[in-house]
UniProtKB/TrEMBL annotation, chains A, B:
<keyword id="KW-0963">Cytoplasm</keyword>
<comment type="pathway">
    <text>Amino-acid biosynthesis; L-methionine biosynthesis via de novo pathway; O-acetyl-L-homoserine from L-homoserine: step 1/1.</text>
</comment>
<dbReference type="InterPro" id="IPR029058">
    <property type="entry name" value="AB_hydrolase_fold"/>
</dbReference>
<feature type="active site">
    <location>
        <position position="309"/>
    </location>
</feature>
<comment type="similarity">
    <text>Belongs to the AB hydrolase superfamily. MetX family.</text>
</comment>
<comment type="function">
    <text>Transfers an acetyl group from acetyl-CoA to L-homoserine, forming acetyl-L-homoserine.</text>
</comment>
<dbReference type="Pfam" id="PF00561">
    <property type="entry name" value="Abhydrolase_1"/>
</dbReference>
<comment type="subunit">
    <text>Homodimer.</text>
</comment>
<feature type="domain" description="AB hydrolase-1">
    <location>
        <begin position="45"/>
        <end position="348"/>
    </location>
</feature>
<keyword id="KW-0808">Transferase</keyword>
<keyword id="KW-0486">Methionine biosynthesis</keyword>
<dbReference type="GO" id="GO:0004414">
    <property type="term" value="F:homoserine O-acetyltransferase activity"/>
</dbReference>
<feature type="binding site">
    <location>
        <position position="217"/>
    </location>
    <ligand>
        <name>substrate</name>
    </ligand>
</feature>
<dbReference type="InterPro" id="IPR008220">
    <property type="entry name" value="HAT_MetX-like"/>
</dbReference>
<keyword id="KW-0012">Acyltransferase</keyword>
<dbReference type="InterPro" id="IPR000073">
    <property type="entry name" value="AB_hydrolase_1"/>
</dbReference>
<feature type="active site" description="Nucleophile">
    <location>
        <position position="148"/>
    </location>
</feature>
């Protein structure tokens, strides 16, 4: 009865609530997910894909006009080979793409969560993903792969469930978010919270804080790209129909467009919560310290850094590399330059293809 | 009768208005300025200091509790030696530190300019500075020095008045603002313009757009510093009294404080206009092309780059260096690393001291 390629949904934690790391609990968590390819008889070819901050459960669309966020990376014979592996991708807890988040109805009150949505972190998201895999009767992951926020999730999988995961492929993310990156997230959050339409997070029966969210997205875009790419794409070209303090240069018009486009697909409260989960990511939560946490990892761990990444800076990637090595992780590290900066993991298939392939296939 | 060290003021363009490059005119322009040291009998020791975006006419305070923005760089025996040179510094046209800007009263209407303030660019600011020097009967500048936005002004001085200027010292700025940097300015402008208290720029009888201006300032601060400096200063330390979506990490509290502090000293409309003047800076305005403009420079030109500068990136400084050399400018180029990034020119005296001294004294 399943509609082909429509996002699948399941309600988990119906009998026992999920106890959240920072306190509170969530019950009857709806999870949106998608699967690709076929699970083999031995159930040894399952790969979990973890999406980045504003991603969703559908990295790929087969025979559809739609384009997923990893559309060019997946398919028969591609780096994420749907003819060989069984891929599972789910929307994260706290998101707004089908999985329970601030815009969902609280089953206990029958009202939208809004400001009452509890604080969730990556470790909570992993637990929901694990519950989904249990529901799907997947006893083991051949690999977990993700970029940015998704790379943090992939790392935590190998820490929290070391015997469950053979391989981790972490693209463009470090083991902790930097002070500067927290600062950018702070500015984005303040833009949303300061929007008079935010109403403390309870805006679902009103106009949402669209201007704040658009400003946040524009800033995010700047940290995901590089000056080199923006210079190549727009340089200092001026719009024909320009406004002196508004969209005057083409690069401004591009950013404004990206800001507006984002409003159609994202909820401000989800954005606030996921940004904070990014800030708060710390592999050591629940363990004595970072070394104790990282030394649990048994998976073959591939880490790919982009030297021009402005969000996860190279110095942080180097620090992560060092920590992983010091804690005995079987690390396979690659770095390269891309004009796309942080966004390279969504765009630069030619570079990532052999690295992902090696991460999934080489010994 | 002049009060010691209070900012001086003069009204210029009282007989003939200033015709602005982008159209329109301004008359009876009030100019706030300060001078330091003594002009020698031959009038050969005058140095014009051009301030950066949010600076003012007082880089230095003598025998005062106050601290100017170049307090540590100026004084007897220091890089900017007040016992040898006669320094002049004025607040830029469009600013809010005593020189005519959007918050000033339009003498033609007796009402505050607000949204009616015309669009001003660096070339206009230079003309006001030149009128001030004429008023002060200074026939020649030994040097013009400035960092960032002030460096752009210094450059334009040597182009527009090649026989008037012996030396240029340009710290941490390139010949043009990059696409990415325009993008950051765009986000800052949108934060201000989207603030419901902005009222299209006519907010002087109401509450000003303080939240938008604070957000803009916080973002500015991030581009002026580096992750390394923020990591050293704050790392991932959490505030004792924290708010989950507000000031949670110490770096957030620092940024929020910087945002609030800025509100006491800056006007949103001035900020918008000066940001745009930064974006629009182009040495070639009024000349056939950039080569024609740069080849007019007769001054000994010192350019100092900070390799970690996130606002004026090294690639742009290198491009500027190349253009200056190609056009026969007597260029003296230095580059170095500072954890302070762009803000180094306001902070890192130990590095800048010998470079500024060389720029002012060496042949």
């Amino acid at each position: 009865m399943e509609e082909k390629m429509a996002v699948k949904k399941v309600t988990l934690f119906t009998e026992k609530p999920l106890e959240l790391i920072l306190g509170g609990q969530l019950s009857s968590i709806e999870v949106a997910y998608q699967t690709y390819g076929k699970l083999n008889a031995e159930k040894t070819n399952a790969i979990l894909i973890c999406h980045a901050l504003t991603g969703d459960a559908e990295p790929y669309f087969i025979a559809s006009e739609q384009s997923g966020w990893w559309q060019n990376f997946m398919g028969t014979g591609l780096a994420l080979d749907t003819s060989r592996y069984f891929f599972i991708c789910s929307n994260v807890l706290g998101g707004c793409k089908g999985t329970t988040g601030p815009a969902s109805i609280n089953p206990n009150t029958s009202r939208v969560y809004g400001s009452q949505f509890p604080n969730v972190i990556i470790q909570d998201m992993i637990k929901v993903q694990k519950a989904l895999l249990d529901y799907l009767q997947i006893p083991h992951l051949y690999a977990v792969i993700g970029g940015s926020f998704g790379g943090m999730q992939a790392t935590q999988w190998a820490i929290d469930y070391p015997d469950f995961v053979n391989r981790v492929v972490n693209l463009c993310s470090s083991l902790q978010f930097s002070a500067e990156a927290i600062g950018f997230n702070h500015v984005m959050r303040q833009a949303i919270i300061s929007d008079p339409n935010f109403h403390g997070g309870d805006y679902y029966d009103k106009t949402p804080p669209l201007q704040g969210l658009a400003i946040a997205r524009m800033l995010g875009m700047l940290t995901y790209r590089t000056d080199k790419q923006l210079t190549k794409a727009f340089g200092r070209a001026i719009k024909t129909d320009n406004h002196f303090l508004g969209d005057y240069f083409q690069v401004e018009s591009y950013l404004s467009y990206q800001g507006r486009k984002f409003l159609e697909r994202f909820d401000a409260n989800s954005y606030l919560h996921l940004l904070r989960a990014l800030d708060l990511y710390d592999p050591a939560i629940n363990y004595a310290n970072i070394d104790t946490a990282l030394s649990r990892i048994k998976a073959r761990y591939t880490l790919v850094a982009v030297t021009s990444d402005q969000l996860f800076k190279l110095a942080d990637l180097h620090k992560s590399k060092q920590l992983l090595i010091e804690n005995g992780v079987d690390l396979h590290y690659h770095e390269f330059h891309s004009d796309y900066g942080h966004d390279a993991f969504l765009v630069d298939y030619d570079f990532f293809e052999p690295r992902i392939r090696a991460g999934l296939e080489e010994d």
